[in-house]
Amino acid sequence: MSRAIIAILRGISPEEAVPCCEALIDAGIDRIEVPLNSPEPLKSIAAMVEAFGDTALIGAGTVLSVEQVDAVADAGGKLIVSPNADTDVIARSRALGLESWPGVFTPTEAFAALGAGASGLKLFPGNMAGPGGLKALRAVLPKGTQVYAVGGAGPENFGEWFEASADGFGIGSALYKSGISVGEISGRAAAIVRAYDEACA
């Protein structure tokens, strides 16, 4: 079962990448982004793609330019996540056959992103918009638009976000922090998957 959770591995190193990715997949999380402000992110992405590219959707976060999109594609990444809605980044991602998840906060940003071909929207920062903000935004979005809440969404409030029409989530520090063990990552991932499944039920 593939869950609508994107693991955000900010700060991960190439040495940690493959074992961390394996732990997440084993726990039931198979969508993984390495933010480009991590150490040697393209090496981490390439290593994870080589090991698990057939079973997981792997790519980059904090993607801010067309050049970065090209670099992620060259590393084998298939997922582009951004904190903002840059229409050039979205269009380039889609032209290369990659999923594009730009960050939006307002209807103007949301419609610009969708117009450029975004696969889905990343409501960011989610803790500022809140479930109420998502409800208001959803009222004007085209039917079927995928919206993931990122920042302020987690196991303690998955249910509240689902009720507000969230389709999925991006989870960062609750899953991974630099320096934690693979065992701890496994435990955190398992707990988040349980909370997600319970909220879905």
From TrEMBL:
* InterPro entries per UniProt: Aldlse_KDPG_KHG, Aldolase_TIM
Annotated GO MF terms: lyase activity
Domain of life assignment: Bacteria
Keywords on record: Carbohydrate metabolism, Lyase
Alphabetized Pfam families for the sequence: Aldolase
Assembly mode? Homotrimer.
Protein name per UniProt: 2-keto-3-deoxy-phosphogalactonate aldolase
Q: What is the lineage of its organism?
A: Bacteria, Pseudomonadati, Pseudomonadota, Alphaproteobacteria, Rhodobacterales
